[in-house]
Fold each of these.
Amino acid sequence: MKDSTRKILDSAFTAFSRVSLFIVGTAVIGFILPIALKGIGAFMFTATVEHEKFLSENLDYSLSKSDKERIRKSDAARQKLWEMIDSYESSKDSSQPLEKISDLRISTFNKAIKDKDKLKSILSQTPSKRAKLIKEYAEGAWRAYADALDDAERGASGFLFQKFISEQERKLESDAEIFAEEICKGAKISRMARNSLRRNFITYPISLLNACRERFAEKNSAYLSMKGGIIELIGPRSLKEKEDMKLTRQKYGQTRLDIAQRVLSEDIAKISIRKISQGGIPIMDRVSSKEYFGNSVPGQILEYVEKHFDELLQPHFTIYPGFFTDNPIDANIFGGIYPMILGTFYLTVCAMIVAAPLGIAAAIYFSEYAGNGRIANFLRMCVGTLAGVPSIVFGLFGLAFLINTIKVSDGKSVFAGSLTLALLILPTIIRTCEESLKAVPNSYREGALGLGAGKWRAICGVILPAALPSMLTGIIISMGRAAGETAPIIFTAATSAGLAIGLSDIFTQPTPALPWNIYNICSEHEMAERVGHVQYGMALTLICIVLFLNLSAIFIRAKLQNANKNK
Amino acid sequence: MTTLVQERKNKHIQNVQNSPVMTSADYVITARDFSVYYGEYKAVKDVNIALNRGKVTSIIGPSGCGKSTFLRCINRMNDLVPGCRTTGKLMMEGIDLYHKRLDVVELRRKVGMVFQRPNPFPKSIYDNVAYGVRLKGRPPQTQLDGIVETSLRRSGLWDEVKDRLKSSALGLSGGQQQRLCIARALAINPEVLLMDEPCSALDPKSTARIEDLIAELSGEYTIAIVTHNMQQAARVSDYTAFFYEGVLVEFGETSKIFTNPKNEKTNDYITGRFG
């Protein structure tokens, strides 16, 4: 090869490896950094006043002076909001036109009674002609009533008007009955004709009322949708309402500003309205509240919430270290992730207690006793195969063998999960420990044996201490793997909800654990988008645990090797 | 050696001696038609030799001639090599070293060994020297301190390390490490000291110190030293054995071998015509 070609190849290779290093580096940073940033948001965030309320009422936190001040301020702002809502829901401003409508109803009937003769002549016609004529007459008679209804609807505000419409319908029916009796009194009119009069005379106003009601139902559902959003944002109004709620998430408003803003933009500024489609099937439609309500009272309420958002919720930056030490409440929407951390700790440590001695013993056997015989090599191959078995298979094995067959516990338990994890990491531990033992110079063995040490004493006194740093490294890195494994504990140890368990329960109780709960809270949680911060918080915690274990492995190795060199 | 016999008696091992005592008390190690095989390969061929008590015997010969193999048989270090077996007799003061009921651990306490490369353990200097002593029991601290000091003084290391006995032995220089290994071997008070090219990894100055040390130790210990360095063999040893292709070609007093070898091959080797 020419010298110049070799130089080009050399620099090409260097450039290639640098580029790949750079890509790997950016990938790691691009992967870790967002998780870290979002994860930090789980315990350092802008909280609302609801956060302090929740903590003081559920987790025995005490309220500071500034917290109390915030609650007072927000209560004052809320008071006004509730007053607006109250006045809207029980508004009496439309009672005047309503009375007028009632009057018009009665006068319409009275007028028609005066036209008794005309109606009687209509009734004597053939049935088909009769109905048509009655309708024509009624439309004329009810015109004033219809106009009044139109006027009233424009100024009406919901609840009361809806009630009024139902009342009018009822009254129309009963009045029509009396009216028909009155017309037919003394005359020889068939029963059928009388019924026709009763029905057809009020068809027009009833249809008007029905249309009115439908329009109001839509308006009402829109208003209720917005009100629901407001309650979701700031919590229920009174203590009694709060106590009536079953779930903790219904008892408090939003504790985090980011989610509160989302609620404002998604559930308050946008509303679901119930519309009747052309096929007569009710459908839900989402529209902008501002456009829908315009300048009406609900529109004013919306404006108030948007304008006084900060006063209602009192956002302030807070650090919540309890995220790591508190129990979760209401499916992780509130509280911390303490049980998951503790569960991961139990599982990892128990797995280590089981796997480390077994692994070290097997490694000593392989490296010092077994030699290179056929059986030893077969066993080595088995260990290698075990290392390649997918972790979900270990999980199934744990369920089928450990729990169902030899019954280490009645059901899922920390102990069963630890044993499964121990099996999973055992091959890795054996491998790394065997390699570390083999890396011990043979001269140490000869030296020890040459001084009259038995094999066992040479192993314990010289070979193991010399191999210890790299053995520990391997074991701790396996520990990191055990901490992060999900599949083996699904069937054997993990539960999605639950509180922290005591040390005495590890043989009988399942536990929440970080890897499983990350999956669970991301994919199985009914309000997954509201607990995004918990997802990232858990992921960050898990990464930190594994990172901490790996760093401590490096640290211990460096420390022990230094200690060996210049003690 | 009497202690070894007594200890073995204590362990109720009887009828150890199947063969009669062949040598006079002046000989510590005797080999009779002794051969070593690595699998099918015969590395040492029918060697007959006797090492004198309290003398230094050097074993010379070109690489691969079986001199190290022979040396390592004396404390059964070759047991570690898979597929190694022996025929013939190798005796130490009348005891068959390859008897199947011989306590190898006990033998190695009596026959110390210093290896080609210094191999101190990754422990402190003190612990290195005390290692062999502690294997046998737990002597009182003052007694242990005494043993460590004596051993280090004998190997001429004491003045250099007395202030840092607790620091790691791996921090010493190569020559110091080798002398530490010698001190370690001396601490358990062996009768025979085997040295497998102890100076081959050392600089001339350290080599000179080790040679002085060997001279000091001779008389007290029976020493067998394998070396490639003919001058060294001439300087330190009383007797010299020349191995060639697994065969003991010539054995005799060093002065005679180096001035007036009987065998032509010996002559060629020591004059540097081959090897």
Amino acid sequence: MKILVCISNVPDTTSKINFTDNDTKFDTNGVQFVINPNDEFGLTRAMWFKEKQGASIHVATVGGAQTEPTIRKALAIGADEAIRINAEPTDGFFVAQQLAEVAKNGEYDLIIAGRESIDYNGGMVPGILATMLDMNFVNTCIGLEIDGTNAVAYREIDGGKEKIETSLPLVIGGQKGLVEESDLRIPNMRGIMMARKKALTVQEPSGGASLTQDQKFEKPAEKGPVKLVDAENVDELISLLHNEAKVI
Amino acid sequence: MSILVYTESEKGKLKKNAFEVASYGYALGQLMGSDVTAVAINSENTDALGAYGISKALLIQNSKLDVFNAKGYAKAIHQAAESVGAKTIIVSSSADTKFLTPILAGMMQAGYVPNVVAIPESTSPLTVKRTAFSNKGFALTAIQSEHSIIGVSNNAFGTVENATACDVQGFDASIDDTDLSTKSVEVDKVVGKATIADADVVVSGGRGLKGPENWGMIEELADILGAATACSKPVSDLGWRSHGEHVGQTGKP
């Protein structure tokens, strides 16, 4: 089984979010970038398929040279090869177009992408990619088992989960639950050394257009301080819930 | 130019978010001077959209779509959009809709902007405000393509009543078995309780509650308020509550 894991290079979850250039760009100053958490759950599940079912794993990202430490980390975790499409990921449609070209050339059985990146939160790349490739698709995937060309996927729905039967070739939008948080892997020294020798191919983008453009950013209004109500002061709690929160 | 609003139903009844996107669609139609048509699938109360300004709705009744199927639903909505010449589609932010909409965007080559929190600030090009950076920022996003899809964030616009008569017309969608190659075989869903997706109020707890055995007070308060329950990331990591209740960057928005 050939697996492609799509990796997005995103700010670490603890990053302070600020904007620059008259609020038209994300301020990367002092920000550490990591593998998008939803993609990392997918990569970890792909490693399970590699170790239990002999799958091979390629990882791909759309981004400039500054994204290479992130994709090298994916190689250090255990992916076999990496592909970087040398272009700024300007919107989800553009990214899906670029990944579709990689996928067509690689003839993958399974493509795993995160259900969304935690920076721009588009949540569209896996679905558009599946449509472009005419492959089966399961979003918000929290469990995946594969036997031959048959796949059983579990999807998070509002208020529960759904079991889906489908077949390869398949695209999934993965998220937490696909593996547990405790299953995530920290690259060891051997993995880091081996990653240096693994192929990281840089490809130029294959045309394609963005359909949307972020013109300006702003930060939400500052949240007020947390109000702690003494356990004995029920009247104040009732007043706050009624007059401020307006939930009773 | 015409606007199509996809109004979601469950077990034959329009969902709360259907009335919110109907309200949004009506307001956008007023802003753009455009016709607004709703589309519903296997809904039994489609005419209820009239209360929110929708004067025309297409009703797709198709047994192949009795169970939600993202590709089948996307194809049906695409056909409805083509039939009314819609350039702009309005959808909700439910899990099912966020599943089908990227497929629809791929089919229509449409610029899709999810998590939209307000009526467009500009209509040429269509420019909308949405959440980004896991709710730590907002982006003003312009849609540059001929077709556009706006995903309205849950509870961002609310429901706005503008009563009118709704003319419900049948619409035949052509769905092949090949469109249904992902099959739902089992659904495990909480019944009779509010979910984070559609709740007006959420009661959330963290590790300060010391253990899952103390969650009774969260659930009791949520029941009294008609609220959904939620939890922090460590709580779901510890297995005290399900992943579906986790709110935050890697959980629910």
Amino acid sequence: MNEMIRGALAAHRRNVRLLRRRPDLVAQGVLVPLVVLVLCAILFGSWGDRWPVGVIDRADDARSAAITDSLAQSRSNVDLYFETIEDDPRAAREMLEDGRLQLVITIPEDVATTNEVRISTYNVNTDATKNLRFRVDDALNIHDEVRGALPATVDLRTVAEEDVTRAAFIAGGVLLLALLLGSMLLAANVFAVEEEGRTAKELLMSPFGAAPAALGCVLTATLLAYLSAVPTYLTGLLLFGFTPDVGSLVLVLLFMLPLLVAAAGLGVLLAQLLRQHRAVQPPVILVAIATFFVGGGFVSVPGMPPTARTIAQWWPPSRVFEWSNPVLHDFAGSYTAGQWAWGGAFALLGVAGAYWAGRRELAAPRRGGQ
Amino acid sequence: MWSAIRAMVRKDLTLSRRSPVFVVITVLVPLVFVSLYALLVTVSTTSPVAVAQEGGGPHSERLLQILRTMHNTDGELFEIRTTDPGDARAMFAAGEVGAVLTIPADFDDRVSAGVPVEVPLRVYNINADGTKNFELRAEGAVREFARDTGGGVPVTAVRENSHFREDMGTSAYLGTALLVFAVLYASMVNTGTLVAREWEDRTAKPLVLSPVGNAPLLGGKWLSAGVQTLAGTVLVLAGLAWLLDFPALSLGAASWLGLFVLFAYGSALGTLLGVTLRRSLPLVPLCVVLAIVHFFLSGYESYLRGFAHGGAVEWLWASTHWWPTAGLTQDLRLDATGLGDGGTDWAALGGTAGIAALLTLLAVVRMRRQLRFTQGQ
């Protein structure tokens, strides 16, 4: 046993030296989450809830002023719903034609008698246009509530005093993705190096075979995954308002340790099966990104449609997001004992998988002069 | 020349047949990604919610009916998971639903008496987007209810005038972006790894220095990659048609030409990366990143355009919206849905083809100038 541990530590030391010389083995685990974070946070979250609109007040009377006020008051928990950037009818129409505005609200001269406002939409897709219409509904509800036209109103009550902004939620999810992807990809890359670098034979001819090297890859990947996730964390912190409590963050990082061991073990196993970087990387990277989107990193699982919920129920990585997001954003104080137990079980499975992969190397076909 | 190209294709396809794992992966992985991402389409449409229906009169039933039937062309806007008050609160407490909307016990009495009543909506606000979605839908429901109830003061009416004759379904909108992603990813990875493989397998030198020039190498790689990309694209189209009801059969000749140009563009990128990096290790993640960047920036350009006013989002849009793949993607979706005017965005097509030609030229120059071979080559 001691020899196995010494072998794993030796492999780990070798891996660290190798990674110093070959930053391309680490770079992917850093680059992919960063790109996902920056694009998703800017596209879906950085602009808050303010939708740029055109508002044309042709009536200029008390009623139209009340409607305009309602549009200015309409807001979500984090931001206003509308930002009027154009009030000139012609300019607004041209911007709408070009798709540079998706909503122009016109209050006609006779609004007091017709009780009707007009909206022009650049109905680019059902999702965006539905949101625009609902925002108009929200503003007019404010107006009509004052007029006594609403028999029922919505009373929004939230669990926490303040919402977690979408950009911060995405940043938290991508941090978890960066850790998991970093660990799995690094382990797979380092293990596949033996095949691609034609050094697998030397490992097999050592007294303990390739199993210590496989365990060494798990150790290296688990430890370096934390380092590879630092750029993602800092980007979320500095650019997208992701400011978790230090205690919560430390707890999440600690909880991730057994899960990173599991991810690394799976990475080694995949590398042993698929042998080459070009075969290992596409499934690991794309399935990891897809897991982020449908496994709870982008939207919480309870907010997903039935099929996605069913997949998340059976897809272990989605547990990482579902268990860690509440802790990360202070909606839960800690993990449950059951969650820790599952984490430990996954880690054991990861170690066992890596060990088995090392043993399987004996049966693997040799090629390329090996 | 042609015999050299045929020989190159035969060699690559034989290698693929002998070692099919990579081919299977390049064909199936985009399908898996596209299928999983497709599930997100319904997230933007349908919000799962629990309703605690304490009131049992006609007004309560009417409000519940409105909640049940609110929809757009993509589907229902609410998925009501229960209407039992006890179950609703238990599900919310257990984190099984993100919101619980209560129709209070005195709802009917107060509505009948003309006394405004509040409908509590409790939300687990871990994501502001979710909170906003629940709230806006609920606001829409109470507005619809007010219209139906028709009290003494009528609600303000809204008359809408839309740019397109009907809203484009989000499934078609995102489905097109996913199709573009799949074609770009497959063409880049397939061509790039086929090119880089020659260096990895130490067979590049005779190919690059061949007296027939570089055309057989590039032509052969493009043809081999084309076969694999075509297989992957057909699978993705079938997947999109099945999962998102994507109108794959509505794609006209111009759209197929657009997809071919996208393949050429992706292959040119893959070729340039292949001859520059000469290893698949850094190449594959770069291809993934490039495909994802195109997916978000070109796939969502027409959506981004409307709210890119100020801040990082405007900078991002302004610096990327002119890239021709954005116009090509929008053209594809207008053709697939029949919402366009029937014209073709030749500027986008020509621009993409021009960039593909330029990238290929760069790849050839790079290959000819970087005549360094290592490790026994």
